[in-house]
Specification:
The chain is mostly helical and 1590 residues long. It has a two-stranded antiparallel ribbon. Helix 23 packs parallel to helix 25, helix 33 runs parallel beside helix 35 and helix 40 packs parallel to helix 43. The protein starts with a helix and ends with a helix. 43% of the residues are buried.
C-alpha cells in the first residue's frame, strides 16, 4: 500500500514538492498508530513506515535523490517520534547487508557510508554502535580504533561462553518461597496473570532472583495444576515472550529424564508442553528436537518389529522335530509399556490428544512411521476418547436406538481449541474421519466407539439411499468415505477382536449396502494387503493359522459341532485367510467336503460373504493347473471346489451374484471350464440333475409332469430346494445373468471345439463339450421351471432372434423357446374356448379343433420366421411347419407314462401304510395327509397330461398331410428322409437323453399317423445300415444319448419282429411300409407292402449291419471310436445282439480290446470288461437264427444231383422300378454276383482256372430266383405289374437269344451228324426222363415261391440308397436295379474287406458266401459227369439233334447273355466287374438278404447241376470232332462277337463311373440324383453292349 503512494514523480520533484509530500505522509502514519510504541506495533502501518524510510535511503544511494537530501530528510524524521531513530537504524542495517554482499558495489557502498556518516548528527553514537556491524562502523568512521573487533570478541566470549560462579547463598530463599506461594495460591477473580507478573517482577528485584530459575518455578507450578492453563498460559506469555527460551527450559527438563531411565518422564510435563503447543506459546519444531529417541531410531525399531513378526509367522509354518516340552517360548526384550515409557514422542502425542490438540498430534504422527504411534495403546485410547466427544451430537441424533435405551453420556470438550463436535454427517468429514484414518486398526481398543462408527455409517448410507443393486448415489455424501473407513479402519480392527460375532454382524449391516464388486475389493485388501502393513496383524494371522490347522486335523463326521464352534470363533475376526486354508484342504481331500459344510453353520453373515469371495478367488487362481498331467481330464481340485460350492450355497444363504458373474466373464473369455461350478450349484440348489446315466424307469418318468419328475425322475429326492432355488433365481435376476448365461453357454459349445481346445486332447475336448451341453440343458430347465411364464417370455429373446442374431443352433434355440410356445398355445386355447358361447357343453372334438386353431395361430409366425433361415431347397422335401412341430414338442406332448404314475402312486401308498402303523401323534397325521395329497396331485397330473396328449395328437393328425411334400416318388424316399435325419433326428437325438427317446417316439408317431410320403422302413434302414461315422463323431455323453436312441428304435423294431399279430396291426397296410412309391400316392395294392417274414429278414440284415459298424470301430485302435462303440453296445444291450453268431463275433472283438487296453487305457479296459460281463449274463436269452427269421433246410443229396430244366418258352422275370427304368433280369444280377465272388477266389482256385470259368458260365445261366427271396417276389410281382416296355424288352431278348441258339444248334448238327446217329436213340430216352423230372421240380418251386411272403422292397426300384447324413454315404435301401439292401461305398472300405470273412462265416446256411463256397467245391463232380458222358458219347446216335435243339431252346431264358455259351471267359470278366460294387456291399448284408434264397437253394442246385452236365457233354463232343479249320473260324467268330479285354474295359468304365461323385455337388441329395442318372446310363450302355456281343 505504501509503495503505491511513493511513485516516481515524487522523487523527481523532490526539491519542489516531493519532500513536503513525503514528510506529510510519514507524519500521517505516525499519528494514526494508536500504539505508543512503534517498534512493538503489529499493525501494517509500522511496515509502511519502514518502507518509507527504506525507499528514502535507497533512492539517495541510487538516485534520483541526492545523498545529502536523503541525510537531511532523515534528520527531520528523527524529530517525529522518540523511537524513530531505532526504526531508521533497523532499515540502515538491512541496507548495510544488501550493499555489503552485492558485487561491484563500490559506489553504492560509498554513498551509503556517506548517508550514515551524515546521519550521525541526528542519531546517537551509542545507538549506532549497538545496531551496526563493526565493519560498517569502521567504514563509516565511527570506530577509529582497529583493535576494537578483537576486544569485542574477548568480551563476548567471557560473557556468553565462560561459566560464571555464583554464590547461591547470596540469593535469599525467602524470595523463592514467596514466589512459590504466590504461584500456587487459589486462583480467584482478583488474582490475574498481570497481577502475578508484577509480583514476580518485584520479587526478582527485591530478592535478586535468577529469571531463568523463576521461569522454571513457574513451569513447575503449571505442572502441578495443568487444569489452570487459562491462568498460566497468559502468565508465561507475559513473562517470557521468546518461545525458544521456553523450549530450551522444557528441553532441559526432558533431557534430565532421558539421562535417568529409571525415572520415567512425568505425564504432567507432557501435558504442559501440549497445552503450550495448543496455545502456540511454543512451536512443535522447536520442542521436537529436544525429544528422544531420534526418528531414525524409531524407524529402525518399527522395521525390526515388522521383521520379528514375519519371522514369528515363518517359524509357525515350520514343522519342528524337537521335543515340544523342551522348546522355550521366545521372550521379547521389552514390553509394549516399556517402549511407550521410553519414547518421549509417544508421550507427547498422547498428551496432545488428551488436551484435544488434534492438529499438533497429527503433525507429530506424520513425522513417525505409519501407524507407529497409534500402535501404542495409550495413544490410541486417547484418540478414541477424543473421537467420542467429537461424534457425540451426531451419534445421539442418528444412532437408531430406542429413546428408552439411554447410553452413557460423553462430556463435550471444555477446551475451546479442541475439535468442534460434529452435528451432521458431513461434519464428520472435517475432523472425525481423519482421526479414524489415523487411528487405523487400533480402533479395536475401543469396541464401543467401533459400534458407534458402524451405526453412524449405516445411518449415513440409509440417508443417501445406498442400494447394492443400484449405482452409487450422486452428490456430497459419505458413500465412498465409509468405504475408506471399512478398508483402513473397521475391517483391520475386526481382526484384533476375538470371538466378537456381534460386531461382525454390525460390520455386515454396513458392508451389505454396497455391491459385491466393492465388497470383494475390500475383502481382497483385507486378506492380502492389510496384514502386510501391521506387525500385530501379522502375528495375529500366524496365531490364527496355527489354530485352524489344528482344528482341520480333527474335523470329521463325529465331531462336527465342536469343530464347527471352534471354526466359527476363529472366523468371526479373521475369516479370509482361514477360508483359504480350509479350501486348500478341501481341494486335497474331497472327503472333507461334507464335514466342513456341516461345521460352517456357526459363521456370521460377514464370514459367509467372505467365503463366497474366497471361492471366486480360489477358482480364478492363475497359478493352478486346471487339467491333470495327462491333459485329458479336469483337475481334482477344481472338481472338489465345484462340489463344495454347490453344497455350501445350498445349505447357507450366501450371495451368488459374484460367482455367477465370474462364470459369465469366463464364458465371455471363451473359457468353459468353470461351468462345472454352475452345474453343481444348479443341481444342489434347484434339485435339477444333469446326470446322463438315467435308468429306463427314470427316463419314462421324465416324460411326465413336474411332480412325477421330482418324485421318480431324479436319483435323489428333490427336498428342501424351494428356498435355495428362489435365492438362485433372485441372484440371476439382480445382474440379468439368466439369459446372458444361456446365450453364452449356447455360443460356447462350438468355441469349445474350435477355439478353446485347439491343442487339447480329443478326450478333453469331448468332456468340455459335454460339460457345456449338460450345464446348458440343466440351466435352461431350471429357468423354465423357476421363472414365471411372463418373466421367461419377457427375458428370453424370440426364436428368430436367437437363431439369426445370436447365431444359436436350432436344438438350443428351440430348447429355450419351447416353454414359451407351450404356454402361449395353452393361453390361446383357453381364450378361444371361453370365447365360444357353448364352451361348457363343448365336446372333445370341438376342444381338439380349438386347440389346433390355437396352435396354428401361435406357431404360424414361428414357421414364417424359420423359413428364411434355411435354403429354399430344404423346403422342397419337408415343410417348415413340420420342422417347427418336431422341435417344439417334447415327450410330455406325445406320451403319457402311465406305468410310472402307477408305480409312484403304489410306492407312496405303501409308504403311507407303513408309516400309518408306526405313526404316533400329530406328526404322523401330517405325514398321512401329505401322502394323500401327493397321490391326488399325481392322479390329477396324469389326467391333465392325458388330455394334453390327446389334443396334441389331434393337432398332429391335422398337420401330417402337409409335412412331407412329394415332388416325385423318388424324392419321397430319398431326400425327404435325408432332410428329416439331417435337420431333425440327428441334432436332437444327441441333445439330451429324453430327446433321444423323443426322437424314437416321434418316428413311431409319424408311422402311426400314416403320414403320406414318409417311408418308415427307409428311415429305419438309413439309421441302422451304417452307424460307424455317427458313432465316431460323438462325445462320450452324446454316445450315451445316441445309444439310448438306437435302443429305443431297436425296441420298436424288435416289438414288430417278435409277433406277426403286432406287425400286421401296426405295420401292415401302413404307408411307412410301402415299397413301391407312386407319384399319385395310391397305396391300395397289397403287394406294395412288406410282409412279416420279409420284415424279419430286414431285421436280420440290420443286426448284421450294426455288428459290422461296431466291429469296425472296435478294430480302429482309436480311443474315441472304441469308447463310443462300447458305450453304445452297453446301451443297446437289451435288444442287441440276440443272434449267437453275432455274439461270438462281438465277444472276440471285446476280448481283443481288453487284452490290448489292459495296461494302456484303463477306462477302455473297464468299459470292455463291464460289457463282456453283461453280454455273458445275457447269453441265455439268445435267439436261434431259425427263430429269428426263416432259414431253409439243407438239401438232400438226391436233390443236389437231380437236374432241372426251365419250362419251354418261359422267360425270366424283369423288375421295373418306379422311375420307369427297365431293370436287369434277376438271373443277370445273380451271375454278376457269382462272378464277383469267383474273382475274389482266383488265388485260391488258380489251379482250376479253366474249370472255374466254366462253373461261372454255368451259374450265369441259372434261373431268375437265385439271389434271395426278394428275387422270387420280384418275379411274381413283375408278372403282374409289367407294362408295354417290359413286354417288348422280354420279347426282343427272347427272340435274340433263340436265334443265336438256333444258329449254334445248326452248326453242331452239321458237324456231329455222322457221330450222333449211333447215340440218338439212347440220348432221346435219357433226355426225356431228365426234362420231365426238371419240369416237375420247377413247377413245384414256382408254386412254393408264389405262396411265400414277398420282400416288397425288392420290387421298389426307387429305393436306392442315398448318401448317409453328414460326410459319408451310408446304408442305402436297395440297389439301382434290384431290390437288395447294400451299403454304398462299402467296397472301398478296408474295414469291410477285413470283416467280410468273419461275418460271412457267422451265418451258416444263409449267407451268400456259403453258397459260393459250395459252388467252388463242385467242379470235381462236374468232371466225373463229363467223363461218364464221354464214354456214353460213342454209342449215341444222330436222333438226339432235335432233343438237343429243344433243350437249348429251354436254356435260352436262363442264360445271362447269348455269348455265355460260346465264350464263358467273356461272361466271367464282364459280370465280375459289373457286380464288383454290389457284391462287396452285400458281403455283410448278404445273410439278411439271402435268407429266402435258402428256401430255393435245392431246386436251384438241381438246375445248376443239369446245366453243367449239358455244357460238359457238348464241349467234349465239339472238342473231339472239331477240325483245325473249324477251330480257326470259331476263333474269328469270337472276336467279332466282342473281345474279352474290351468287355472288361467297358465294365470297368461302368464301375468307376458309378462311384464317381462330382466335386461341385456337395449336397447328399444332388449326389443321390446324379447316381440314379448314372445308373440309368450304365444300364442302357450295358444292354447295348450285350446286344453287340449277341
Amino acid at each position: 500500500m505504501a509503495a503505491s503512494c511513493l511513485n516516481s514523480e515524487l522523487w523527481k520533484s523532490w526539491e519542489r514538492q516531493g519532500k513536503t509530500e513525503y514528510i506529510k505522509q510519514v507524519k500521517q502514519l505516525v499519528k494514526n498508530d494508536e500504539n505508543p510504541s512503534l517498534l512493538f506495533s503489529k499493525s501494517t502501518k509500522n511496515q509502511g513506515l519502514t518502507r518509507f524510510i527504506y525507499e528514502l535511503i535507497w533512492h539517495g544511494i541510487n538516485g534520483p535523490l541526492r545523498k545529502e537530501a536523503a541525510a537531511s530528510t532523515i534528520g527531520e524524521l528523527v524529530s517525529l517520534h522518540k523511537e524513530m531513530p531505532s526504526i531508521i537504524l533497523d532499515v540502515v542495517g538491512v541496507i548495510d547487508a544488501e550493499t555489503a554482499i552485492a558485487e561491484n558495489n563500490t559506489e553504492e557502498r560509498q554513498r551509503f557510508c556517506f548517508i550514515v556518516r551524515e546521519s550521525e548528527k541526528y542519531l546517537s553514537d551509542k545507538l549506532l554502535k549497538e545496531r551496526l556491524d563493526i565493519d560498517t562502523l569502521q567504514d563509516v568512521g565511527t570506530l577509529k580504533n582497529r583493535n576494537f573487533y578483537t576486544k569485542f570478541i574477548k568480551v563476548k566470549t567471557k560473557l556468553y561462553y565462560k561459566q560464571r560462579k555464583f554464590n547461591l547463598f547470596r540469593e535469599e530463599s525467602e524470595g523463592y518461597a514467596k514466589l512459590i506461594t504466590e504461584l500456587n495460591q487459589e486462583i480467584c477473580g482478583s488474582i490475574t496473570p498481570k497481577y502475578i507478573l508484577e509480583v514476580i517482577k518485584s520479587l526478582i528485584g527485591c530478592f535478586n532472583l535468577d529469571p531463568n530459575r523463576v521461569l522454571d518455578i513457574i513451569l513447575e507450578s503449571f505442572e502441578c495444576r495443568p487444569d489452570q492453563y487459562q491462568f498460566f498460559i497468559p502468565l508465561l506469555q507475559s513473562y517470557m515472550c521468546d518461545p525458544k527460551i521456553l523450549c530450551e527450559v522444557l528441553g532441559f527438563k526432558f533431557s534430565f529424564y532421558q539421562s535417568n531411565p529409571e525415572e520415567p518422564t512425568p505425564e504432567s510435563l507432557y501435558i504442559v508442553t501440549a497445552l503450550m503447543l495448543q496455545h502456540e506459546v511454543i512451536l512443535l519444531d522447536d520442542i521436537y528436537c529436544w525429544l528422544t529417541p531420534h526418528d531414525s531410531v524409531i524407524q529402525k525399531m518399527w522395521e525390526e518389529e515388522m521383521s520379528s513378526a514375519q519371522e514369528y509367522v515363518r517359524k509357525l509354518n515350520i514343522i519342528s522335530t524337537k521335543d515340544k516340552d523342551k522348546e522355550e517360548p521366545v521372550e521379547e526384550k521389552e514390553t509394549l509399556q516399556d517402549n511407550f515409557n521410553s519414547n518421549q514422542k509417544f508421550g507427547l502425542c498422547d498428551a496432545l490428544l488428551k488436551v484435544g490438540n488434534w492438529n499438533h498430534a497429527e503433525q507429530l504422527t506424520r513425522k513417525l512411521p505409519d501407524h507407529c504411534a497409534m500402535d501404542q495403546a495409550p495413544v490410541a485410547k486417547s484418540l478414541c476418547q477424543l473421537l467420542h466427544s467429537t461424534i457425540e451430537p451426531v451419534y445421539r441424533k442418528n444412532c437408531g436406538l430406542s429413546s428408552k435405551v439411554m447410553g452413557q453420556p460423553v462430556p463435550l470438550p471444555t477446551n475451546p481449541l479442541a475439535p468442534r463436535p460434529a452435528v451432521t454427517f458431513l461434519d464428520l468429514r472435517k475432523d472425525a474421519i481423519p482421526m479414524l484414518l489415523a487411528l487405523g486398526p487400533s480402533l479395536h481398543n475401543d469396541p464401543v466407539l467401533m459400534y458407534k462408527i458402524l451405526r453412524l455409517s449405516k445411518a449415513a448410507l440409509a440417508q443417501c439411499g445406498a442400494d447394492p443393486v443400484m449405482p452409487a448415489p450422486q452428490g456430497d455424501t459419505l458413500y465412498m468415505d465409509i468405504v475408506t473407513l471399512l478398508d483402513e479402519v473397521i475391517l483391520p480392527s475386526l481382526s484384533h477382536m476375538d470371538c466378537n460375532c456381534c460386531i461382525a454382524e454390525e460390520v455386515w449391516n454396513v458392508i451389505k449396502q454396497y455391491p459385491y464388486q466393492i465388497r470383494y475389493c475390500l475383502y481382497s485388501r483385507w486378506k492380502n494387503e492389510t496384514y502386510q502393513l501391521h506387525a500385530k496383524l501379522l502375528r495375529k494371522r500366524g496365531e490364527s493359522l496355527k489354530k485352524i490347522k489344528s482344528i482341520m486335523k480333527r474335523v470329521s463326521k463325529e465331531n462336527i459341532k465342536p469343530a464347527g464352534r471352534l471354526i466359527g470363533k476363529l472366523t468371526h475376526s479373521t475369516p479370509g485367510f482361514l477360508f483359504d486354508y480350509v479350501l486348500l484342504q478341501i481341494q486335497i481331500y474331497d472327503n472333507l467336503i461334507g464335514p466342513v459344510v456341516d461345521s460352517l453353520k456357526y459363521l456370521t453373515s460377514l464370514s459367509y460373504d467372505v467365503l463366497g469371495y474366497c471361492l471366486v478367488e480360489a477358482m480364478a487362481s492363475a497359478d493352478r493347473a486346471c487339467f491333470k498331467y495327462d491333459g485329458t481330464s479336469i483337475s481334482a481340485w477344481l472338481q472338489s471346489l465345484s462340489k463344495f460350492c454347490g453344497a455350501i450355497f445350498k445349505k447357507y444363504n450366501i450371495e451368488l451374484t459374484g460367482l455367477l458373474q465370474y462364470v459369465a466373464n469366463q464364458l465371455k473369455a471363451q473359457k468353459s471350464l468353470d461351468l462345472l461350478i454352475l452345474k453343481e450349484i444348479v443341481q444342489k440348489m434347484a434339485g435339477i440333475e444333469a446326470a446322463e446315466e438315467m435308468t429306463a424307469e427314470q427316463l419314462d418318468a421324465m416324460a411326465g409332469g413336474e411332480l412325477l419328475k421330482a418324485e421318480a425322475g431324479y436319483f435323489s429326492q428333490v427336498r428342501n430346494t424351494k428356498k435355495s432355488s428362489q435365492r438362485l433365481k433372485e441372484a440371476l435376476g439382480e445382474q440379468n445373468l439368466a439369459v446372458a448365461l444361456c446365450l453364452l453357454m449356447a455360443q460356447q459349445r462350438y468355441c469349445v471345439v474350435y477355439r478353446e481346445t485347439e491343442n487339447s486332447h480329443l478326450k478333453l475336448v469331448g468332456k468340455l463339450y459335454d460339460q457345456c451341453q449338460d450345464t446348458l440343458v440343466q440351466f435352461g430347465t431350471f429357468l423354465a421351471s423357476s421363472l414365471s411364464v411372463e418373466e421367461y417370455t419377457t427375458k428370453l429373446p424370440s426364436i428368430h432372434s436367437m437363431l439369426a442374431d445370436y447365431h444359436i443352433h436350432t436344438d438350443v434355440a428351440f430348447f429355450l423357446a419351447r416353454p414359451m410356445f407351450t404356454n402361449a398355445i395353452n393361453i390361446k386355447f383357453d381364450a378361444l374356448r371361453k370365447a365360444d358361447p357353448n364352451c361348457k357343453k363343448m365336446s372333445a372334438q370341438m376342444k381338439y379343433q380349438k386347440y389346433v386353431e390355437a396352435a396354428a395361430e401361435i406357431m404360424g409366425p414361428v414357421v414364417e420366421s424359420i423359413r428364411p433361415l434355411h435354403p429354399p431347397k430344404v423346403w422342397e422335401d419337408i415343410s417348415p411347419q413340420f420342422l417347427v412341430t418336431f422341435w417344439s414338442l417334447t415327450m410330455y406332448d406325445l406320451h403319457v407314462p402311465v406305468e410310472s404314475y402307477q408305480k409312484e402312486i403304489a410306492k407312496i401308498k405303501a409308504l403311507q401304510a407303513m408309516e400309518k402303523d408306526a405313526a404316533v401323534g400329530g406328526k404322523g397325521k401330517k405325514e398321512q395327509e401329505r401322502y394323500t395329497a401327493l397321490v391326488e396331485k399325481l392322479e390329477e397330473e396324469r389326467k391333465k397330461q392325458q388330455e394334453h396328449v390327446e389334443k396334441v395328437m389331434a393337432r398332429l393328425k391335422q398337420e401330417k398331410d402337409s409335412w412331407f411334400l412329394s415332388r416325385s416318388a423318388k424324392s419321397a424316399k430319398n431326400e425327404t428322409i435325408t432332410q428329416f435325419l439331417q435337420r431333425c433326428i440327428f441334432p436332437r437325438c444327441i441333445f439330451t437323453s429324453t430327446d433321444a427317446v423323443y426322437c424314437a417316439k416321434f418316428v413311431h408317431t409319424i408311422h402311426s399317423l400314416k403320414t403320406a410320403n414318409f417311408s418308415t422302413l427307409l428311415c429305419y434302414d438309413r439309421l441302422f445300415c451304417d452307424i460307424t461315422y455317427t458313432v465316431t463323431s460323438c462325445t462320450e455323453n452324446e454316445a450315451n444319448r445316441y445309444g439310448r436312441f438306437l435302443c429305443a428304435m431297436l425296441e420298436t423294431v424288435m416289438k414288430w419282429h417278435a409277433d406277426d399279430v403286432t406287425f400286421n396291426k401296426e405295420c401292415a397296410n401302413y404307408p411307412g411300409f410301402v415299397t413301391k412309391f407312386r407319384v399319385c400316392n395310391q397305396f391300395s395294392e397289397a403287394d406294395d407292402h412288406v410282409g412279416f417274414e420279409n420284415y424279419r429278414h430286414v431285421c436280420h440284415k440290420w443286426h448284421y449291419k450294426i455288428t459290422k459298424a461296431l466291429v469296425v470301430c472296435l478294430d480302429s485302435k482309436d480311443y474315441v471310436q472304441i469308447r463310443n462303440s462300447l458305450i453304445i453296445l452297453i446301451k443297446i444291450l437289451p435288444h442287441f445282439p440276440v443272434l449267437p453268431k453275432l455274439v461270438q463275433i462281438i465277444e472276440k472283438k471285446i476280448e481283443k480290446v481288453r487284452e490290448e487296453e489292459k495296461s494302456q487305457r484303463q477306462d477302455l479296459f473297464i468299459l470292455a470288461t463291464s460289457y463282456s460281463g453283461h453280454l455273458k449274463a445275457k447269453s441265455s436269452s439268445m435267439i436261434k437264427e431259425s427263430d429269428f427269421h426263416q432259414v431253409p433246410e439243407k438239401p438232400s443229396k438226391a436233390q443236389e444231383t437231380t437236374p432241372k430244366v426251365e419250362p419251354s418258352g418261359q422267360h425270366p422275370p424283369v423288375t421295373k422300378p418306379a422311375n420307369g427304368e427297365v431293370a436287369k433280369p434277376e438271373k443277370e444280377r445273380s451271375s454278376e454276383r457269382h462272378a464277383n465272388e469267383k474273382s475274389k477266389e482266383v488265388a485260391k482256385e488258380s489251379k482250376e482256372k479253366k474249370s472255374t470259368s466254366r462253373q461261372v458260365d454255368s451259374s450265369s445261366t441259372k434261373s431268375a430266383p437265385t439271389k434271395s427271396s426278394t428275387s422270387a417276389t420280384s418275379s411274381s410281382d413283375s408278372k403282374r405289374d409289367s407294362g408295354q416296355v417290359k413286354e417288348r424288352a422280354d420279347k426282343e431278348k427272347g427272340k435274340e437269344s433263340y436265334e443265336s441258339k438256333e444258329k449254334v444248334s445248326k452248326k453242331e448238327e452239321r458237324r456231329e451228324e455222322t457221330d450222333k446217329e449211333r447215340r440218338a436213340k439212347e440220348k432221346k430216352e435219357e433226355k426225356a426222363l431228365r426234362e420231365e423230372r426238371i419240369y416237375r421240380e420247377e413247377q413245384r418251386f414256382l408254386e412254393r415261391s408264389s405262396k411265400d411272403d414277398r420282400y416288397a422292397v425288392s420290387n421298389s426300384g426307387t429305393m436306392s440308397g442315398g448318401d448317409r447324413y453328414y460326410d459319408r454315404g451310408g446304408g442305402t435301401y436297395g440297389s439301382s436295379g434290384g431290390g437288395s439292401y447294400h451299403h454304398r461305398g462299402e467296397a472301398d472300405d478296408p474295414h469291410d474287406r477285413e470283416d467280410i470273412s468273419s461275418l460271412s462265416n457267422s451265418s451258416t446256411g444263409s449267407a451268400t458266401g456259403g453258397s459260393h463256397r459250395r459252388s467252388s467245391q463242385e467242379p470235381p463232380e462236374v468232371d466225373r459227369d463229363a467223363k461218364r458222358r464221354k464214354m456214353e458219347a460213342v454209342s449215341s446216335s444222330k436222333s438226339t439233334k432235335s432233343d438237343e435243339r429243344k433243350a437249348a431252346a429251354m436254356e435260352v431264358p436262363s442264360s445271362s447273355s447269348s455269348s455265355a455259351m460260346e465264350k464263358p471267359e467273356k461272361k466271367e470278366r464282364s459280370s465280375s466287374k459289373a457286380g464288383k460294387e454290389k457284391s462287396r456291399g452285400e458281403k455283410i448284408g448278404a445273410p439278411a438278404m439271402s435268407s429266402d434264397m435258402g428256401e430255393e437253394r435245392e431246386p436251384r442246385k438241381e438246375r445248376k447241376v443239369a446245366r453243367k452236365r449239358d455244357r460238359a457233354e457238348e464241349a467234349l463232343i465239339l472238342a473231339e470232332k472239331r477240325r483245325k479249320e473249324e477251330e480257326k473260324a470259331a476263333k474269328m467268330q469270337s472276336h467279332q462277337n466282342g473281345d474279352p479285354l474290351d468287355a472288361h474295359g467297358r465294365d470297368k468304365h461302368h464301375y468307376t463311373s458309378s462311384n464317381r461323385v462330382s466335386p461341385r455337388e456337395k449336397s447328399p441329395y444332388v449326389r443321390e440324383r446324379e447316381r440314379s442318372h448314372d445308373r440309368d446310363g450304365r444300364d442302357k450302355h450295358r444292354r447295348s453292349s450285350e446286344a453287340k456281343r449277341r
